[in-house]
UniProtKB/TrEMBL annotation:
Residues 214-233 are annotated as: Disordered. The keyword Transmembrane applies. It comes from the Bacteria. This is Peptidase. The chain crosses the membrane at residues 248-268. The lineage of its organism: Bacteria, Bacillati, Actinomycetota, Actinomycetes, Kitasatosporales. Keywords: Membrane, Signal, Transmembrane, Transmembrane helix.
């Protein structure tokens, strides 16, 4: 009888534990759909040039394939927005000058900076590559760490806001400077979700000119929408309005499993009461 009761309790526990898991699995597509997904631009509006400094960096959206033509030795700059929970990956393809015109090998490098112009380390990817004299192109990639919603002031963690990309060749010989080249660049992000969530958030994303915009709004006592068009260098803003996280699902599942484990443990230790062979008055 006791074994049957334990087995029935175990079956009940397994059935109830499976229901939250199904709920969590069904909730994940909704969570993924709630975040904006980047898709390549099909209307021909993708940028076809790059900036030459941080202030003139060309704005691109995630999923767009930007192109640019320049001379070997130039510094090419782009900027894109990234929100918390995203892990951006920057990929660049450089089409080198004709091999007959190059005198030596070329080393190309891609660097990523955040809104405070702090250089961000690549978690993995070929950030620097050397192309031989017979190579026609070189491919670079840089996957950043997951963008955090909040961080300590002394830390160098990626935060929501604008990110800058710099592409250039290093260690060039004098004979190779000025040769024509072209580049293709695209940024995509993977939504990491609640596993990277932290308790806290920035008041505003790290966008160039945000401090100037806030100061002007406080002095004038007016809305910052008019100032943002002139003070902010970047018009791209990450979507920071999402409040839902899959941490809610896992927290609920953990609470239900803890309650069921307590009930199961109590059923195993409470015993079966007074044995039937002992009379009540004994």
């Amino acid at each position: 009888m006791r074994i049957r009761r334990v087995l029935s309790t175990t079956a009940l526990l397994a059935g109830l534990a499976g229901a939250p898991a199904l709920l969590g699995a069904a909730a994940f597509p909704a969570i993924a759909d709630s975040s904006p997904s980047a898709s390549p631009s099909d209307d021909g509006s993708a940028p076809t040039e790059a900036g030459t400094s941080f202030r003139t960096a060309t704005e691109i959206e995630q999923g767009e394939q930007a192109t640019a033509g320049a001379s070997t030795g130039d510094y090419l700059y782009w900027q894109f927005p990234a929100d918390s929970g995203q892990q951006p990956t920057v990929k660049a393809t450089v089409k080198l000058p004709e091999a007959s015109k190059r005198a030596s090998s070329e080393t190309w490098q891609i660097d990523v900076y955040d809104g405070l112009r702090r250089r961000q380390a690549c978690q993995y990817g070929a950030q620097t590559r050397t192309a031989g004299t017979d190579a026609s192109s070189v491919e670079l990639s840089c996957t950043l760490r997951t963008v955090r919603a909040w961080s300590e002031t002394w830390a160098n963690d990626p935060l929501p806001g604008t990110y800058y990309i710099r592409l250039t060749a290093t260690g060039l010989g004098t004979a190779d400077l000025g040769l024509p080249m072209s580049a293709q660049l695209q940024v995509d992000s993977e939504d990491i979700g609640g596993s990277a969530a932290v308790d806290g958030s920035l008041a505003k994303p790290l966008v160039p000119g945000i401090a100037v915009t806030s100061a002007n709004s406080e002095e004038d006592g007016s809305d910052d929408s008019s100032d943002s068009k002139t003070a902010t260098l970047s018009s791209l803003r990450p979507d920071t309005s999402a409040w839902w996280s899959d941490r809610w699902v896992w927290t609920g599942i953990g609470g239900v499993l803890a309650a069921l484990a307590g009930i199961w443990g109590y059923s195993l230790t409470r015993g079966r009461g007074r044995p039937s062979r002992i009379p009540p008055g004994a």
